[in-house]
Structures are given as structure tokens and as C-alpha cells.
## 1
Amino acid sequence: MKQAHLELAQCREIGLEAFCGYEVTRGNRELGRYARGLCGGCPVITECANEALDLEDVGTIRAGVAIGDQQTWRARAALEFCAAHGYPATSLDVAVQWGLKYGVRPRSNAGPRD
Ligand code: SF4
């Protein structure tokens, strides 16, 4: 991450390296909540999401996404959502983002029916 972005990063006190090699297990909801809480409101969240996508970061937390040992479609959709909107994605946001990309509607009854 660029130095200017690092200085503004909400996680600068923790240090980005603290997340390297993070034990991210699939379906770890607690870690997902932690990631969204940590990154929500970060002034460089958009840059962080774009960089994580470009560099294909794994085993870390970026832009409110706890990324496991590979960038799954779910992690990439969450990062793409965050890059586009500037805040961490919820599970529903991820489903919608994926649906927009591949032209399918998410299977969810959380939203209003049309
Ligand atoms: S979005 Fe999260 S991981 Fe990225 S710089 Fe901000 S606090 Fe750190």
C-alpha cells in the first residue's frame, strides 16, 4: 500500500503485517465481523480493496474481508463491492455483487419482492 494510504489506514496502529498469515478459516463469522468492524469507516478502504484485488492478497484482512488461503469468488465479490461502494460488504451485498457480475439474481428473500 502506498505510504500516503498507510498513514491514513485505520489499522495503522495494529500494523498491516499483523494480519499476514492470519488463520482465516472458511465460514468464520466471528472473524468476518471483526474484519468489517476494523475496516468500516477506514478512509482508504477503496484503495485497500483495489490493491487486494490487484495483488491477489491471501491469508489476511483487507477492506473488511477476511481472506483465506485463496481468493474465493465470495472474497473477490466482497472486495469488488467494497471497491465500488467504499464500505465493507455484508453477505447479501456479496450475493448481489456476484449476481450483477454473472447476470443471476441472488437466492434470498431478504429484500422486497417485485
Ligand atoms: S481497509 Fe482495513 S485493512 Fe485496509 S487499510 Fe483500512 S483498516 Fe487496514
Note: The first strand starts at residue 60 and ends at 62.
## 2
Amino acid sequence: MTRNHIYSHTSAENALDRRSVEMDFEIERIAELVEGEKARVIQLQFPEGLKRYGPDVAKRIRQQIDVTVLLSGNPCYGACDLDYDGDVDLLVHFGHAEIPALAAQKVHFVEVRSDVDVIPVVNEALGLIKGPRVGIVTNVQHVHTLGSVRGCLESAGLQCSIGSGDGRIKYPGQVLGCNFSSARAVDVDEYLYIGGGAFHALGVALATGKRVVAADPFLHRTSIPDADLIVKQRYALITKALDARTFCILAGTKTGQRRLDLAFELVEQAVKRGYDAYTVTINELTPWTLYQFPAEAYVNTACPRIAIDDASLFKAPMLTPIEFEMVLGKRDLGEYTLDEFLGG
Ligand code: SF4
């Protein structure tokens, strides 16, 4: 993934730092787990916005308990991406909630919840909410605030719903950049998204086709993401890809991003229709890692947000599998559907 993606996906963590919010890295709990598991070697994995805290957290763990602590230096953007192998007794993954459907073994998740007060920005968002039926969604950093957000909205006469997601979502109201099942689970007129940055709020708008009011409690800012602009950009890329004859189908190798069967199926469908198509397995998807794999268009079966958020970085159109089906004529061009990792 790329810089744009890094920025957008970790904006909340960056914002946490900007506001000097004290973060709970659960040092005592990690020491207990190390003792209980009799772990000799552990690895700590932080998303980009929290990585710089790694050396200090490692030191604090070693002060508590005798254990070898490794820091993952690889990029990390989500709980879909677990960086450990057989040499490590326990992986401690910071900044994300577990994805239940992945049933990861030997991994402890430290969510690093935010203690920022969200109510002032929710009060401000009331001026933008039309209602009357509002779905409340957030990322894991603020899921514990949803009860008080609901109270605030209901006091203003709005009807609130907080939906439960599918097997990839741990908490009611929580969304991931690739899964908006908790938003779709409720029948509402619009959504209120609580959290930093535009990444998740834009995803809710694209996935539901409904208006979203985004309330950023770190910057105390409200906004309405423009999903129509992104949809127009996607159709421009789809139109460009209609002229392509050679497609490179990308199959991600990160733990929770694997869709190799889908990649094979897409290659088969393309070849059947007379196109050239080949599959590349890939861990980090960037313009540089694609350099040796020329194609007139790419199809990304890994993290769905790379195609959307990093589109401008790639020289050739980077399509989602759903968009590729439009290009192949398998799917109607008329209705835009966001690619998501659903189920489990
Ligand atoms: S696959 Fe989902 S959880 Fe993983 S980095 Fe992409 S948006 Fe985030």
C-alpha cells in the first residue's frame, strides 16, 4: 500500500498523537500474557501512526518481565495484516480490534482506545444532521462512546440505531475500511460517523449510498464526505479500462486479505473473453512493487481501499474485482458497488 493509504487509514492515530492523548498500551496485561503463555520471544506490531512508540513500549515490557521483544518494521494498516511466524511465541498487535472471522492464534490485540471527549463535536454535528433516523458508526477507538453519542442525539429528538456487523466486525457500530456491514444493518436516513480523518466516513457513504455526517473529535471538525466525486472518478477509470487488452490480477498475501480463488476466477473469465490476463501474488501493493508487471489495467483482490484511495498513484487503472466484472460485461455498468471483505 502507499503513502496516501497510510495517511488516510492512520489519520486517527496521527490525530491521537497531535492531541497528546494518553494511550494505554496495556503493559501489565502483556506481561501477564507472556508469563501465562511462558513466551520467550514476542513481536510487537504497530500501525504506521503508532510505530514510533514501539521502542519505548518494548522497553517498558522488558522492565516488567524477562522476554525477548521484537518490533515489526513492516508496514501495517489493519488487523487483517498480522506479521509473525513460527519463531515468535506471541504477537501483540496494537491499534486495531481483532477481526473475529480470522480466528488468529497466538495474537493479542491492544486496541489503544481514545479517551478524547466526543460529545462536543457531536453537539456541533447536530447542526448538519437532518434525520430523523440516524445510524451511528465509528472506528474501534471510539466504540465505547456510542452509548453517550446515542443519548446526545436522542435528546435532540433523533431516532438512533447502532447496527451489528458480520463476522469480521467485533463491536456494534464499528466499521472497517473494507467492511460496512454494521452500517447496512440498520434502516436509517443518514449516518453519523465519529472518528478522525475521511477514510471511514467516505467508505460508509460509498457502501450505503446515503448521506454521512463525519464528526472528528480530535480536530473538532464536521464534514460531509463527497462520495459522488469518487464514484465519478471510478467510472472514468472503468471507461479507460474498457480499452485494455492485458490485465494483471493481484492476489494479496496478507493474512486477512487473501482472495486467491477470486483472482483465479477473474483470470479465467478474462481469458475466456479473449483478454490476456495473469496473476501476481503480492504483499505490499505499490507503484514500485508493480513496476516489473506491465499491464494496461490492474485488478486488486487484496485490500479493497487501495484501488479507491490510492488510484492516482498508479499509471494504469487499478480496478476492484466488481469494477472488473463491469469491464468484462458480467455486471451492469449502471450501479456502483463498493468492494468489501464481508462474511465469516
Ligand atoms: S483490508 Fe480492511 S482492515 Fe485491512 S487494511 Fe484494508 S481496509 Fe483496513
Note: Residues 77-78, 80, 176-178, 257, 303, 305, 341 surround iron/sulfur cluster (CB under 6 Å).
## 3
Amino acid sequence: MKLVVKDLTYFYLDGDEMRYIFKDLNALFEDSTFYTIIGESGSGKTTLLSLLGALDKPKSGDVLLDDTSIYQDMDKYRQRSIGFVFQNYNLIPYLNALENIELALDIAKVKKPKSEIIKLLESVGIDGSKTKRPIVKLSGGEVQRIALARAIASDPPIILADEPTGNLDSDTSDKIVNLFKQLAHDHQKCIIVVTHNKHIAKISDVIYEVDPRAKDLKQIAVEDLVL
Ligand SMILES: Nc1ncnc2c1ncn2[C@@H]1O[C@H](COP(=O)(O)OP(=O)(O)OP(=O)(O)O)[C@@H](O)[C@H]1O
Ligand SMILES: [Mg+2]
């Protein structure tokens, strides 16, 4: 699987003025690889994830999944190819973890037995009564892990995550990062994680940094990462 970003340009309108976030951005994302995207706050990381996830369209340029534009049928692409972990989770607060995942699978038209969902939740450290408690009665870190379980439940080839370890202590964060690595290396997933945490970037296979001056993405070597 190859996700090719070709001359992608994006701007927000600020009154009449076009505020460019990306100009002719080119990048490549492949399966079996754990990518991190770093960059200062406001540099465009969330914007880029929403373009890669076809939640929004570029002003010009394209993103091709195995030679087909992801913007041709955005709904189908999102449903079949993408698992999202948003900065604000987007879980249904009055449903419990199990129900949230069942609902997401329903929407994706994927059938999975309850026992497998429970196993999946266990893999992110949610077990016992926590799977049956409404989301509002769980901690921030627990909710974050459920959002991750939901993203991977329908087994999409690409997982997009925006600061997925922001609310986690370092032990739990390590576990989640290891899970990302495992998904990439043992399950051939393409994992794209936006993070401020350079230790996570260091563990990933490929590090991209948003360059706000060039309005582009540049790959940086682990050795060049300033911790
Ligand atoms: N809907 C919008 N309309 C206008 N400007 C926006 C909109 N959404 C984001 N922006 C601006 O675009 C820039 C990039 O935003 P984005 O959310 O992609 O940054 P980010 O790198 O994810 O930042 P952070 O690390 O703080 O999450 C910011 O300056 C932001 O204020
Ligand atoms: Mg952001």
C-alpha cells in the first residue's frame, strides 16, 4: 500500500486573505511503517491529518492511495481505509467502551464478535468493569485508549492519530507506542501519529516535521532530532 501526497496546497481564509498552511507538499506513506509528524503548535499537523483522512479536500494537488485519488469517493475511503484517533476523541459519552466500538463497527459495516472487542480493549489496557462503564465515568487516559481501540477495531490499513498519548503517563504511553509499532511491523499497518513528544518520534520508523516557512513536510533523521 502506498499513500502518495502530490503537490498538496492548502490555505484557510482569514477574511479575504489566504493563509497558506501547505504549498506543494510532497510525501510518501507506506504500509508496515510507523510515522510520526512533529512541528510547532499551529504549524498544520491536524490540518494535514484531516487532508490525509479525507475529512477535507486540498485546494490543489492530490493524495493517491495506490494510484487512486482519495477524494474521488471520500466516504468510502474513510470507511474502508482509515482509523482515526482525534485530538478530542469523538466518543459517545453516555455509551460505554464496548458500545462505542460496536457502534463504530456497525457504521463501518464490519462484524466482530464481542469476545474479540474485549480482547482488543484488553490490549490497550481497558478491562473488567471499565469496558461497561459510560465514557464520562472514565479518566482522560482511559478514554484515549478506548479511542485508539475503536480506531483499530475495523482493521483499517491506515491509522491516523492526533496526539494519542497526550493524556497518558509515561508507562501507558510506552505501551501505546509499542502497540503502534506492533501494528506497523506485525500487522502491516501504516501508522501516522502527530505528536509533540520527541521520545515517541525517536522510536518511530520515519519522522516528518512540518516546516512552517517552506509550508512543506521534511523528513528528519533520528540523529538530527533535538531532544
Ligand atoms: N477552520 C479554520 N479556519 C481558519 N484557520 C484555521 C482553522 N483551523 C485551523 N486554523 C489555523 O491553521 C493553522 C494550523 O492549524 P492546525 O490545527 O493544523 O495546527 P496544529 O499543528 O495541529 O497545532 P497544535 O499542535 O496546536 O494542535 C493554525 O494557525 C490554526 O489557527
Ligand atoms: Mg493539532
Note: The longest helix spans residues 170-187.
